[in-house]
Prior knowledge:
By secondary structure, this protein is an all-alpha fold. The chain has a single domain, classed as Tetracycline Repressor, domain 2, CATH 1.10.357. Helices cover 76% and strands 0% of the residues. The chain contains nine helices and no strands. Helix 1 packs across helix 4 (39-61). The chain starts with a helix and ends with a helix. One of its GO terms (molecular function) is DNA binding. It comes from Croceicoccus mobilis.
Amino acid sequence: MAIAARLFHRAGYEGVSVADLTQALKINPPSLYAAYGSKLGLFERAIRAYAADELAQVQQALRAERSAAEALGGLLETAAIRYSSRPATPGCMIATALQSHDDAARGIAVTLTRQNEALLEEYLWPSASPGKARTIVQFVMQNLRGLSLNARLGYSSDDLVRSARIAAGAVSDLLETP
Length: 178
């Protein structure tokens, strides 16, 4: 699964052919179809595995002993470092998939994004009203996607961390404002 995930992460759904997958996985096309049903089936399993790993990072950032501002700031900074520390697969696989021209592949990424948004909103409810929580989560998610894109453009980890810290300061200000 890791091999397929790296291919999809690096090149996007459309940028990876069945031939690319079968060559990298060292299997023939009938074996790929028998195991996953389709290229989309393999993509879905790969992106869901990636999402599970990312969810573990999010849950680590949202530890109970941190304030909401510290947690979301930590999430942004950790993402900035992670997105820029893997030269072969920079950025976020889910954010990349959101740009897919394939409706089904993009739909999977949208579903995963909405799940993450709901998790963050629920986390913020003790600290902010539902409307304010939604606004903050939209801001955080927009910044995460921007960090991902900039990592793919080759921005340095230092550049991304600076941007993440600015966004974290804005989140802190939003949480403190009634």
